[in-house]
Amino acid sequence: MTASYYRILGSTFKQILNAPSEQLASMQEMDALVNQVSGTSPLYQGEIIMEYKPERLWLWQQYSGTILQFNVQTTLLNMGVCALFCIFAREATGLPFFEEPNMAVPFVARLQLVHEVWNYQTALTTFVLTFFVNQSFSFWNEIYMLTRDVQNHINNFNLVVATHTKRDKKNEYTKEAVQLLEEIGQFSRLYHILLWASKAKRFQALSTPEGLSRMESRGLMTSRQLKVLEELTVAPNQLYHAPLEWMVIRANQAMDKGVLADEDAVRSALLAEVRSMRNSARDISDKLEGRMPLAYMSSLSRFWLIPLCSHHISLFPDLGEFSVAAVGILTLFYTGLNNLAKIFLDPLNNEEYCENSMFMNLGVLIRETNAVSTLWMKAGKELPF
After folding, report:
1. 117/180 Cα distance (integer angstroms)
2. Are residues 222 and 276 in the same domain?
3. How far apart are CA 226 and CA 210, in angstroms?
4. For the chain, how many structural domains are there in total?
5. Same domain for 217 and 329?
6. Rounded Cα gap, residues 204 and 222, in angstroms
7. Residues 213 and 234 in one domain
8. For residue 130, is it within any domain?
9. Which Pfam families match (predicted)?
10. What is the Cα gyration radius of the chain?
11. Where in the sequence is the domain holding 282, given as residue range(s)?
12. 218 and 285: one domain?
């Protein structure tokens, strides 16, 4: 087990002791967020999403983090409504319970007409919902790949810098080279944190003055960097652009001083990674903003609700009281598909629509980048030649 210790200034400690309860609660919230991005607060055993085992028995045993957990209340409610309708239907027809409904009874005959319309409606609803889930999952997958693209371009930038820094006669990094790699690595970590603070609501507090100050006290940035960020005349959700520029400018300065190889190929490679990094980050925002038109979602919500609300009426002529179980299965199926699609359309959980186990754990991405930001420097510290 690894323990992390943080040393803070005495003035900060006194400020915490004398702070009102509201401020302490805010500090605790900030600390919880910092823990997620600094690697001390794991979720899903350190995976970006909950992993599964392909065994059928294992999958059937799962409840937490599944669509069953999210839709069980709606399913039970609809089954209860169906049971009440069955009681009403038996009272209206005078037929005994659990006896096959008599089609000669006018009440049952009219329900049979509803059943025929329901058959057409369910066929269309099934097609529309499955198509909706497929499109939503494609959107979810695109966002996931873009998050990995940003991470990969950060890693590539650090790799190019690490492999083109100055070495001494022993093929070891010079003091200036080590300082360069550490600074650019720290810039990349700060960039990645502020990037997700601008796109994910649960990390949004980190881009506020209080959040920035807390990150500085926890060692995620220097006091000088904090001052620069606070004095910038940009919106809080645009602060991540500053560390991105620092990475490039610091590399250019190192080239001018001979610490980093001053070659056109190196400059082109670094600029290409920065452009790709910026484009991927922009694509995430663009896709989230244009994920699905309101008119489509509104029409779909009404379309699938019609057969859902008529299950108990339509199934009674054929199944009688056994329609209660059938309604439960159909409700779980249709509400599950609909809610699953909505979950896929909110991969960052900005809408807080689902349980915690159903969205991407961005803290994993950030912690992975934190680790890899110094990996290339460590991997190339000593050479076999």
Report:
1. 71
2. yes
3. 11
4. 2
5. no
6. 20
7. yes
8. yes
9. Bestrophin (PF01062)
10. 29
11. 148-290+365-379
12. yes
Residue 106 domain-assigned? yes
Q: Which amino acid is at 359?
A: F
Question: Do 161 and 302 fall within a single domain?
Answer: no
Are both 281 and 315 inside the same structural domain? no
Assess whether 106 and 164 both reside in one domain.
Answer: no
Q: What is the pLDDT of residues 261-317, one digit of tens each?
A: 999 999 999 999 999 999 999 999 999 998 888 888 888 888 878 888 888 888 888
Residue 326 maps to a domain: yes
Dist CA 381 CA 162 (whole Å): 9
C-alpha separations of 105 from 101, 115, 317 in Å: 8, 15, 10
To 5 degrees, how large is the angle CA 46–CA 59–CA 36?
A: 15
Contacts of 70 (CB under 8 A, 6+ apart): 336, 339, 343, 354, 355, 358
134 and 104 share one domain = yes
- Token match 């409606």: residue? 121
- Residue 372 has which token pair? 């890899």
Tell me the C-alpha distance between 319 and 306, whole Å.
Answer: 20
Q: Is 25 within a domain?
A: no
- Give 230-272 pLDDT, tens digit per residue: 999 999 999 999 999 999 999 999 999 999 999 999 999 999 9
Give the residues across from 165 on adjacent strands.
Answer: 260
Q: How far apart are CA 87 and CA 100, in angstroms?
A: 14
- Pick the closest to residue 196 from 160, 146, 234, 161 (CA basis): 146
Residues ≥6 apart with Cβ < 8 Å to 371: 39
> How high is the pLDDT of residue 10?
61
Q: How confident is the model at residue 105 (pLDDT cuts 50, 70, 90)?
A: confident
Among 68-72, 301-305, 355-359, the range scoring the smallest mean pLDDT is 355-359
User: What residue spans of the chain are helical by DSSP H?
Assistant: 10-18, 21-38, 56-61, 67-93, 106-163, 175-199, 209-217, 223-231, 241-256, 264-289, 294-319, 323-344, 362-372, 375-379
| Separation CA 276–CA 271 (nearest Å) | 8
Instruction: Indicate the residue type of 39.
Output: G
